[in-house]
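Appendix B. Raw example, untouched.
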Amino acid sequence: MSPRHLDQSAKLKDVLYEIRGQALVEADRLESEGHRILKLNTGNPATFGFSAPYQIVRDMIASIPQSHGYSDSRGIMSARRAIVSRYEQVPGFPTFDPDDVFLGNGVSELITMTMQALLDEGDEVLIPSPDYPLWTAMTSLAGGTPVHYLCDNVDEWQPDLEDIRSKITDRTKAIVVINPNNPTGAVYRREILEGIVEIAREHSLLLLSDEIYDRILYDDAEHIPLATLAPDLLCLTFNGLSKTYRVAGFRSGWVVITGPKGHARGFLEGIHLLASTRLCPNVPAQHAVQAALSGVQSIDALIAPTGRLHEQRDAAWEALESIPGVTCYRPQGALYAFPRLDPDVHEIRDDGKLVYDFLVAEHVLLVQGTGFNWPTPDHLRVVTLPEARVLTEAIERLGNFLASYRQ
């Protein structure tokens, strides 16, 4: 008797994550053959020589003898109290206590738990386009329907408020805001955020604010936490250590719940239930939280005008702008650039094929714009973590490749 055929679950039909898609499979194959691949597909600081602050590593190592048991399903108290203290320093941030904090194995796990607790079949969630694709994927996996609202590349990638309004239905449950934005590097203006909050207020929508890059800002950019504008609304703020503290592999994230909760008791009990079913977050990594949030904020030196991240942002942006037929908004936050390929100069019908062909020819791995749920094949995402000279050389290779590339 032959084995029964096992296909993937139908629930995965609309779950895509091109950041680690087929082009990465080919990149790994090329590496196995001895080729050196510059992987500009993921924001992984450790790959590019960014070390974790020693205080964080020291505290985590010191905690290991006491970390072999489960913790509270929400996370250890010292970490949750440190997170409360962090936001107490933010003017206007609504008050909350440690019971309103859930730690997770990265923000990704917390997004998954939130969507599973929130959504019934057919419920809709407004998600920006372009987006960080996990939001779309986990909405679909939870049985919901992702509805993408446009961000305006002519207006510094700010969300289009009228487009948001036009896409609200009686099935809409929540609005996702990613600020500073991945993949565009945009930092949202106050009036735009106030407009989003007002829409949520009018339609009684949950606010889901992804602020993982809130301390990676350039020039005079100001990050405004969404919760500070919505003390009267239920708002979930997602953040963690991965990017600001360069410890992506620790998988140490959190979600903070603010605003009125009486109308959402079932939803919040659902989050608590799911937190309990995973038993607890990684305990050693939880001990990194207090050290990270209470110590010297080493990110400040990296984003200063002479800092490495700032210089790399400038190098990437200048190199992209120098390619004929390519324009790029100058990122104000995060670790990415999202250049546009003018269709009149570069006639690209399949941006996934472009990424694949560029990888094979030049051994540089990017991500196509449609992988971030952008509707047209005219953008790419470039990670700005390599040293400036490496970025400049890689983008020069992209320009040379585009000069003769045809589909």
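End of appendix B.
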